[in-house]
Specification:
By secondary structure, the chain is α+β, with helices and mostly antiparallel strands. It has a domain of about 70 residues. It is built from 2 helices and 4 strands; from the N terminus they run E-E-H-E-E-H. A two-stranded antiparallel ribbon has the order 1-2. It has a two-stranded antiparallel ribbon with strand order 3-4. The protein is flat, with a radius of gyration of 30 Å. It starts with 15 loop residues before the first strand and ends with a helix.
Length: about 120
């Protein structure tokens, strides 16, 4: 064949890519750049479900091991409740406070971005 017309290559053929002067390396076949084992939404969901199951098992163990009564006083109300219940309610209340603070900060940042975009 003539050197004027290069031979067409199959789309899956390996290609040599020049990197530096005189250095050539073989690259991956065209169209195969993605990792076939990459994460997906489904795999992410399964990981989340498995983590949730582990957390629930640990929570059940915590509840079963902390059944003794604890004295609880709150705004004039006083009584006894299982230790595990009082700790879980306190943790849930703390999580709600943190979640509310985070949500307010996100709203604040969104407003700031909208104002800056509007000013342009």
């Amino acid at each position: 064949m003539s050197s004027e017309h290069p031979t067409p290559q199959h789309p899956d053929a390996e290609r040599e890519t020049p990197t530096t002067a005189g250095d050539t390396r073989t690259s991956a076949p065209a169209g195969h750049g993605e990792n076939p084992l990459r994460g997906s939404r489904t795999s992410g969901t399964w990981v989340a479900v498995l983590l949730l199951v582990v957390v629930l098992v640990l929570l059940a163990v915590f509840i079963l091991q902390n059944t003794q009564k604890a004295q609880v006083s709150f705004f004039g109300w006083s009584g006894q409740a299982p230790l595990s219940a009082t700790l879980l309610i306190a943790a849930a209340g703390g999580a709600l406070i943190v979640g509310a603070a985070g949500a307010l900060r996100i709203l604040q940042l969104r407003r700031r971005v909208k104002r800056e975009l509007k000013a342009r």
